[in-house]
Design a protein that fits this description.
The protein has about 140 residues and is mainly alpha-helical. About 50% of the residues lie in helices and about 5% in strands. It has two domains: about 25-70, no CATH class; about 75-140, Multidrug-efflux Transporter Regulator, Chain: A, Domain 2, CATH 1.10.1660.
Length: about 140
């Protein structure tokens, strides 16, 4: 440790202070922002050290925290409910609903709920608008 009043990072202390940037998605609450930041770090760790990322995933899963770990769908799954669709896209179920209401994600009413075709989710995921958002969110 340093002495009181003495900086351990004098070069960093001389850097001009910058105003923090604005979050690109104003509708996101603090929890959604935190999750997106965590997913960004997870993606970066996966590029730098995939084994360490996998170990962190196992540790988080051991605590019951699996929300940041992408889920792999079976190849024969063609229709998904709102929760599975949200997992597939890495968003909340509320976001799935807003995408449907905005006409960006077709859904089929099934009794009390909605179903979404895998092909529609993939199309949304690979659309230029979605790719740009994912790059902004994850840095990937």
């Amino acid at each position: 440790m340093g002495r009181p009043g003495v900086s351990v990072t004098p070069d960093l202390d001389r850097q001009p202070r910058q105003r923090p940037g604005r979050w690109p998605f104003p509708g996101d609450n603090a929890l959604v922002r935190a999750r997106k930041i965590a997913q960004m770090y997870r993606a970066a760790l996966g590029l730098a050290n995939p084994q360490m990322r996998d170990e962190c995933d196992r540790t988080a899963a051991g605590f019951g925290e699996t929300w940041a770990v992408p889920r792999v769908l079976a190849a024969d799954v063609e229709v998904l409910g709102p929760a599975a669709a949200a997992d597939f896209l890495g968003v909340s179920t509320a976001r799935i609903r807003s995408l449907r209401l905005a006409g960006r994600l077709p859904g089929v009413r099934d009794g009390d709920g909605w179903l979404y075709r895998r092909a529609d989710l993939v199309a949304l995921q690979t659309s230029p608008r979605r790719r740009n958002r994912l790059v902004a969110e994850t840095g990937a």
